[in-house]
Amino acid sequence: MAVSTPSRNVVLMSVFRGDADGGELVNYRVPIREGMVVLDAVLWVQANMAPDLAVRWNCKAAKCGSCSAEINGFPRLMCKSPVAEYGEEFTVRPMRTFPIIRDLVTDVSWNYEVNKKIPPFTPSAEDAADPEPWRMQQEDVDRITEFRKCIECFLCQDVCHVLRNHDRKDAFFGPRFMIRTASLEMHPKDALDRRPLMKGEGGVGMCNITKCCTEVCPEHIHITDNAIIPLKERVADLYFDPLRAIGRRLRGKK
Amino acid sequence: MATAPAASSHEPLPGTVQNPYSALPNWFYPANVVFWLGLFVVYAAVVVLVERTGRYGPYLSPFFSPEINLRVGGFLIPPAIWVAWAPLAFRLTCYYYRKAYFRSFLWHPRSCAVNEPKRATYRGETRFWIFNNLHRYAFYAIFIQTLFLWYDVIAGLLQHQQLGAVLGFGNLLMLVNVLALSGYTYGCHAFRHLAGGGVDCFSCSRVRFALWRGVTVLNVRHDRWAWVSMFTVWGTDVYIRLLVHGVIPHAAWN
Amino acid sequence: MTPENTDTDVLVIGAGGAGMRGAIAAAQAGRRVTVVCKSLLGKAHTVMAEGGAAAALANVAGLDSWEAHFADTMKGGKLINNWRMAELHAKESPERILELERWGAVFDRTEDGLIHQRPFGAHTYPRLAHIGDRTGLELIRSLQDALVHTPGVEVHMEVTVVRLLLAAGRVVGALAYARADGRQIVYSARAVLLATGGAGRIYRVTSNSWECTGDGTMLAYEAGARLRDCEMVQFHPTGMVWPPGVRGILVTEGVRGEGGVLRNKDGERFMERYDHERMELSSRDVVARAINSEVAAGRGSPHGGAFLDITHRSPDFIKRKLPSMYEQFLKLAKVDITKEPMEVAPTIHYYMGGVDVEAETGATTVPGLYAAGEVASGLHGANRLGGNSLSDLLVFGKRAGDAAAEFAGRQGKPRRIDKAQVEAATEFLMAPLTRPHGESPYKLQSELQEVCTQHAPIIRDEPSLREGLEKVLALKERAAEMGTGGATTRAFNPGWHSALDLHSMLINAEALFRSAIERKESRGAHARSDFPKLDPKWAQLNLMVQKGKNGEMTVTATENQPIPYELTEVITQSFQKYTPEEHE
Question: CB–CB of A123 and C98 under 8 A?
Answer without folding.
Answer: no
